[in-house]
C-alpha cells in the first residue's frame, strides 16, 4: 500500500510513464503537392491581413477530408471596418483557406505496425500583403 505524499507522487509518476509507453508512434505525413491559398482580392485591396486556423483529416491515402475552420485572426488593417464588413471578409479568408487545404495531398508513411492511418491535424494559413 502506498502512503503519504511521496508515495502518491511515485504512483502518479508510474501511471504517467505507463501512459507514455502505451502511445503508438505515428509518422508525420509529408505534403507532396497542393495549392497555396489565394488572397481574397477585397482584403488585399484594403491591406487586410489575417491568419486562419484550419482543422482537417489526412486519409490513409494522403487526401484531405473533413475540412473545418477553427478561427480567423486579424493581423492588421481591420480597425477601420464595420462588423458586417469584417464578417464578409472572414468568410472570404475561410473560403480561400479551405480551398487551398482541400487541394493538398500528402505522403502518409506506415506506422510501426506497417499500416497507414488517417490522422487529424491543424494548420494555420497566414495571409500577408507584403
Total domain count: 1
General form: elongated
CATH C-level name: Alpha Beta
Low-confidence stretches: 1-23
Tally the helices: 3
- Count of DSSP strands: 5
One letter per element, helices H and strands E, the order comes to HEHEEHEE
Strand content: 25-35%
Distance between the termini: 64 Å
Going across the biggest sheet, name each strand in turn: 3-2-5
The biggest beta sheet is recorded as: 3 strands, antiparallel
CATH topology: TolA/TonB C-terminal domain
CATH superfamily: TonB
Query: Helicity level, as a percent range?
Result: 25-40%
The pLDDT mean sits at 83
Quickly give the CATH architecture. Answer: 2-Layer Sandwich
Please give the radius of gyration in angstroms.
Answer: 21 Å
Structural class: alpha+beta
Please characterize this protein's 3D structure.
- The protein has a single domain (26-127), classed as TonB (TolA/TonB C-terminal domain).
- 35% of the residues lie in helices and 30% in strands.
- The protein has three helices and five strands; from the N terminus they run αβαββαββ.
- It has helices spanning 4-22, 41-46, 83-103; strands spanning 30-33, 49-58, 64-76, 105-107, 119-127.
- A three-stranded antiparallel β-sheet has the order 3-2-5, with helices on one face. The protein has a two-stranded antiparallel ribbon with strand order 1-4.
- β2 and β3 form a beta hairpin.
- 15% of the residues are buried.
